[in-house]
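fyi for ur records
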Amino acid sequence: MDYLNEGSFERRKNQKIVHAEALCEMMEALTKDTWFTDMIAKVRSRQEKGGAIIMCEYLDKLEEKGEKRLASLLEKLYALGRDEDAKLAVRDEKARVRLYEELCIC
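which gave:
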């Protein structure tokens, strides 16, 4: 949302997420990743306790998830001695997706 509002992430505002469930459902619809809707209960619990979730925090969690996923893929590939596939995963998005599926990394 910050990106759409500002045109970049350079000047993120600390916008509170008001409709967390709708945001999570929209993100799942856009990405086909259920991680977003799996996060609804956590977000709702935090909001019920009076805590706010801001958009940049939400995006940081997404980025962290992606980094962990890539690290897991690379770790498995190196453990299997598939160094060339590891290099390919870093350079080629389609190959990376194929390798995630092959090695069952959700």
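Helices lie at 2-6, 20-31, 35-38, 40-48, 55-79, 83-91, 93-102. thats all i got for now
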